[in-house]
Design a protein that fits this description.
This protein is 36% helix and 16% strand. By secondary structure, the protein is α/β, with parallel strands linked by helices. The protein folds into 2 domains: 169 residues, Rossmann fold (3-Layer(aba) Sandwich), CATH 3.40.50; 206 residues, 3-Layer(aba) Sandwich (Rossmann fold), CATH 3.40.50. The strands form 4 sheets. The chain has a 6-stranded parallel sheet, sandwiched between helices. A 5-stranded parallel sheet has the order 12-11-13-14-15, with helices on both faces. α1 packs across α11.
Amino acid sequence: MYLLFVDDTEGVNGRRNDRDVLMIREGIKQHPFVEMIGEGPGETEKEIEAASKADFILYPMWGDMREEVCDMREEVCNRFCPALIAKHRVPKKRLAVMDFSDGAMKLPWTPPSMAHIIFKRSLVSKYDGSFKDVSNGCGYNSPQPCFPLDYAVRPDNYKGLKAATLSQNRKYSIVYLCQHYGGMSEGLIGQISSARLRVKQWLHLMQSELPDTAFIGYSDNPKDKFRHADIVVVADPGSYEGQHAIYESLGNGAVVLVNNRWVPMPFPLEDGKHVHYFDVCDTDDARRAFQEKVKHLLSQSAEEKTEFRLRAWEHALQYHQAANRVDYIVATMLEWRGKLPVVPKSLRVHPGEKMVSDLRDRCVKPVEKLRQSGVWLDKNPFLRGGRQPWESKDARR
């Protein structure tokens, strides 16, 4: 099967979204039945030939591509894939858009007339880390429902590791990597950093109970921290889901403690079997439960952690590698080729009315009230971010 991957990230706010792109490239490279025959963008004869030959075209997009990609006045995308589709050189049924944008809104420049299926990473809307709703515009009864998408383990995450020695050289008892997030507006704090900084504060409040080998703060070398971590704590952004760190940690053989998540993927990561989940709600009960979970994981025997670590690592490498994500996209495109796509129930977000009601009353409404009163940041000064004197020594660089 031939895939055309459109790496159209050059010049997107000066960034290349490296890890997103690397995941796709590695997934195509790893997959035994998929061959990448071109990249784009452009309309040279060679690229047009590749587009015509390709069974499917994978087109990643990000939320900061609007001016790069589209003429919003005409709602016409001007780059490689849409241009070829408009000229009837590539049927839209071949085009899979991978929406890596931060936020729950479906990108407005990906209408049903453009692509057959949208695979969306941030498929849920959250408030201060707690679930609110499924992405706006991605309703399961819409003419173009969004299929879930998540990050994956890359080969560079587990390179050099062996099952027999997976627990060796774990010099960091617990690792929590978090940017400083200083100088951000209240809106951006709520959108991005609030839940992450709250978890950082929770760990700070129990710092006297953590081993000296704990690492909390920012690191410009996360690979080293994940490779040598016994336990890794991960927190998603406040308003959406999306963390490479979950799969990078799993691939590096760490025991992972991550906030509750709602976007499903095939062969999910099960609580207590492959990862440990925690509630990130801004309540004393949630904080105490998190801190007790951390202490419990730290107190486990080496044998208990080795058993858990190996089971999680093997599951991640079997079902959550980059090639698995490419396989999932290709299999979905094949299944719904020529038909109106329908997201199966197993891949739908369905937390249940009782849980949604609980999160709304217990987690969302109290923070909404604080923010409306204008005292949210005054009550929680740690949310203002910035370097903290108590962070791990080399985290304060």
